[in-house]
Write a structure and sequence with these properties.
Strand content: 35-45%
Number of strands: 6
Structural class: alpha+beta
Order of helices and strands: EHHHEEEEHHE
Oligomer: single chain
Strand order of the largest sheet: 2-3-4-5
Distance between the termini: 6 Å
Number of helices: 5
């Protein structure tokens, strides 16, 4: 007999592991010809070139986390498709959308696994 088992992982850990494993390899944006060097100097460029590393579906909408050379950025889209915040820093997210920031900081990713009993 099989049963569903939930494993819980902090979302912050999911993002950190993605970067550490190279899944958010900033070097991938270097294909634009030295774009990574520009990103290190210019926060606006870093914000736009940062690749998505985690996508979260919530009851209220959708949150995408991007990993740049200078930090993480967040895009929040409401259920109705309205863009609430686009590629904002963690500080901007906390200041303008504290409920989303708390969910990202303290939330858990849940994975269902079919394991033998």
């Amino acid at each position: 007999m099989r049963r569903n088992v939930r494993s819980r992982v902090p979302l912050a850990a999911v993002a950190a592991v993605s970067v550490a494993m190279g899944l958010a390899a900033p070097a991938a944006s270097a294909a634009a010809g030295g774009a990574t060097e520009a990103a290190k100097r210019d926060p606006a460029v870093d914000r736009q070139l940062a690749p998505a590393i985690v996508s979260l579906e919530t009851r209220a909408g959708h949150v995408t986390i991007f990993a740049g050379e200078l930090g993480r950025y967040y895009t929040v889209v409401a259920k109705d498709g309205r863009v609430v915040a686009e590629r904002v820093s963690a500080d901007e997210l906390a200041a303008n959308h504290p409920e989303v920031s708390a969910m990202v900081d303290h939330g858990f990713a849940v994975q269902m696994a079919d394991l033998p009993q």
